[in-house]
Design a protein that fits this description.
Length: about 200
């Protein structure tokens, strides 16, 4: 999953982990998650603030947040193959295909092909196959974060009800073809074009 553009909260712009009353607090586990572009109102844990309890992360990106990426008295445990802080090389929050907007890895991102295949889900947040060769070295390795890098790929999907064909190139849904009363309309980032 992706957690992005959250805040401005008091603390923990992307995720705040605590417990009211006494006790050690919850343990939260995250795999192939992206927490980026969040902000905290008091510069404390723009990505994650763990006051009580623990957050265990694997194949996860926590970077690019304002007010420090992580903070708190609780524990953030990197169980491996995660990017915490630094520059994860992600694109903006946008339609990269799938049901929700996402931050997709850009070419050259350190997230590409550096995850752990054993713990990853079969599909990414968009519903696309996780196991692919994103860096063209001949070895299929999952990416870190919620979305797989789509290198030189073109995917087509057709919605029978709306009679809409979507063309996704390199992970960005930038062209749609509509058929209305046997007329074809093409929508792209440059605007609508009518054809026959």
């Amino acid at each position: 999953s992706s957690v992005g553009f959250g805040g401005p909260g008091h603390a923990g712009g992307g995720l705040f982990v605590s417990r009211s009353g006494s006790g050690s607090g919850p343990t939260v586990s995250m795999t192939n998650t992206t927490i980026t572009n969040n902000l905290s109102g008091n510069s404390s844990g723009g990505g994650i603030r763990v006051d009580r309890g623990a957050v265990h992360v694997q194949n996860t990106i926590i970077a690019g947040n304002s007010g420090r990426d992580t903070s708190g008295r609780g524990r953030l445990v990197n169980l491996g193959n995660s990017i915490i802080g630094g520059s994860p090389g992600l694109g903006p929050l946008q339609d990269n295909g799938g049901p929700t907007r996402t931050h997709a890895p850009l070419p050259g991102s350190p997230a590409i092909d550096t995850g752990n295949n054993v713990i990853a889900a079969v599909t990414d947040q968009r519903g696309r196959n996780r196991l692919r060769d994103g860096n063209s070295d001949g070895i299929a390795v999952v990416d870190i974060g919620a979305v797989e890098f789509a290198a030189n790929s073109v995917e087509f999907s057709f919605d029978q009800q709306s009679r809409q064909l979507s063309i996704t190139a390199n992970g960005s849904a930038n062209t749609r073809v509509f058929v209305v009363n046997d007329e074809v309309f093409i929508s792209s980032s440059n605007g609508f074009v009518e054809s026959n």
